[in-house]
């Protein structure tokens, strides 16, 4: 299968949720990452803190390592990884626009080198300073042109802006024009309410994804740019599983529909979703809401599911549907033009 002019992909499953980390970038961004916060709670023992520290270190090592990755991909039955930098670790949105652009450019250059190590096994997506829309468009174009990347990964906010903000229209317009994949993965919610018990990860990430989808729907991005290729991480967070309330608001509160010409349920079907939900029942609901053609494999490598084939098999889809999730839907999502 050819996704770009020159890039043919290896056979097997395509994993769209696979992280990398660039140590030199992380050295600059880590002070702003949720992973470097001390664990809160007096009841946490020293041993648990040490265990947490060691795990964080080993995850960073695994994200930066490209050799062990291929061995693990073979073990997991993954033919191709779509690589994205972990935004929880190396989001640059805290920085000034110029500084953020410089960090993203360095990171994107390294991403292109990682893909070049084995372009049959790796597809790369880059990063942009989304809080500076003009610079984000410039770097998106460089990713898609000069660097041969397939799109960009963004978080669920752009500084103070929600991602449907009118000031970000030039970014969405360029992403549509270029046919870029936009993979939305939260950099993490820094609200203190989510600090204890890693709630920012268990609850907060899913909340962020629901907010991102809502912003794209309500602010009219999905209505204005019908050909966008947006893929949501973690099965779209809470949104696909709680559409009843969203639909009710749409019907009962006409004032909320200023930028929408169709129902939220219809917009929901315009996005793609990865399978990283850890629950076969949730997967069946997701497919019921968005369609079998909109769900792609996502393992959250290296932290997530190491047996993705077993998980998809446990969901009760037939052989054709399983193949769509494991491979063919992602081929369509990644195809040029
Ligand atoms: Zn992830």
Would you summarize the structure shown here?
Helix content is 46%, strand content 12%. The chain has helices spanning 23-29, 46-64, 67-76, 87-90, 97-117, 133-144, 169-178, 199-218, 221-224, 243-252, 264-268, 280-290, 308-313, 319-334; strands spanning 13-20, 78-85, 122-124, 151-154, 157-158, 161-162, 181-184, 229-232, 272-274, 295-296.
Give me the secondary-structure topology.
Blueprint: E1 13-20, H1 23-29, H2 46-64, H3 67-76, E2 78-85, H4 87-90, H5 97-117, E3 122-124, H6 133-144, E4 151-154, E5 157-158, E6 161-162, H7 169-178, E7 181-184, H8 199-218, H9 221-224, E8 229-232, H10 243-252, H11 264-268, E9 272-274, H12 280-290, E10 295-296, H13 308-313, H14 319-334
Parallel strand pairs: 1-2, 2-3, 4-7, 7-8, 8-9, 9-10
Antiparallel strand pairs: 5-6
Helix pairs in contact: 5-6, 6-7
Bound molecules: zinc ion (ZN).
Tags for this model:
single chain; 337 residues; alpha/beta; five-stranded parallel beta sheet; three-stranded parallel beta sheet; 10 strands; 46% helix; binds zinc ion
Describe the protein in words:
The chain is of the alpha/beta class and about 325 residues long. Helix content is about 45%, strand content about 10%. The chain contains 14 helices and 10 strands. It has helices spanning about 25-30, 45-65, 65-75, 85-90, 95-115, 135-145, 170-180, 200-220, 220-225, 245-250, 265-270, 280-290, 310-315, 320-335; strands at about 15-20, 80-85, 120-125, 150-155, 155-160, 160, 180-185, 230, 270-275, 295. Strands 4-7-8-9-10 form a 5-stranded parallel sheet. The protein has a 3-stranded parallel sheet with strand order 1-2-3. A hairpin with a 2-residue loop joins strand 5 and strand 6. Helix 5 packs parallel to helix 6 (about 135-145) and helix 6 runs parallel beside helix 7. The two termini are about 15 Å apart. The protein binds zinc ion.
């Amino acid at each position: 299968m050819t996704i770009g002019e020159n890039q043919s992909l290896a056979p097997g499953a395509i994993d769209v949720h696979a992280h990398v980390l660039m140590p030199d970038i992380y050295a600059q961004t880590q002070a702003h990452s949720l992973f470097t916060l001390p664990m809160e709670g007096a009841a946490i023992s020293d041993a648990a803190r040490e265990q947490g520290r060691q795990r964080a270190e080993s995850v960073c090592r695994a994200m930066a390592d490209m050799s062990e990755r291929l061995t693990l991909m073979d073990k997991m039955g993954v033919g191709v990884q779509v690589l994205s930098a972990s935004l929880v670790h190396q989001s640059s949105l805290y920085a000034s626009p110029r500084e953020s652009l410089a960090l993203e450019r360095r990171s994107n250059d390294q991403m292109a080198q990682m893909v070049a190590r084995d372009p049959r096994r790796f597809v790369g997506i880059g990063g942009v300073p989304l809080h500076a829309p003009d610079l984000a468009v410039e770097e998106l174009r460089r990713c898609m042109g000069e660097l041969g990347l397939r799109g960009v990964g963004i978080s669920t906010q752009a500084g103070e802006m929600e991602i449907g903000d009118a000031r970000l229209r030039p970014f969405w317009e360029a992403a549509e024009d270029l046919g870029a994949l936009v993979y939305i993965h939260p950099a993490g919610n820094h609200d203190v309410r989510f600090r204890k018990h890693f709630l920012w990860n268990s609850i907060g990430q899913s909340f962020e994804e629901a907010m991102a989808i809502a912003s794209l729907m309500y602010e009219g991005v999905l209505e204005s740019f019908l050909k966008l290729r947006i893929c949501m991480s973690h099965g779209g967070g809470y949104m696909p599983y709680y559409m009843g309330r969203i639909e009710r608001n749409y019907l009962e509160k006409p004032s909320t529909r200023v930028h929408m010409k169709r129902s939220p349920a219809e917009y929901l079907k315009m996005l793609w979703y990865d399978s990283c939900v850890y629950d076969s029942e949730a997967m069946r609901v997701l497919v019921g809401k968005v369609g079998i053609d909109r769900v792609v494999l996502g393992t959250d490598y290296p932290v997530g599911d190491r047996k993705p084939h077993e998980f998809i098999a446990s969901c009760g889809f037939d052989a054709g549907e399983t193949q769509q999730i494991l491979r063919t839907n992602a081929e369509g999502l990644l195809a040029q033009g």
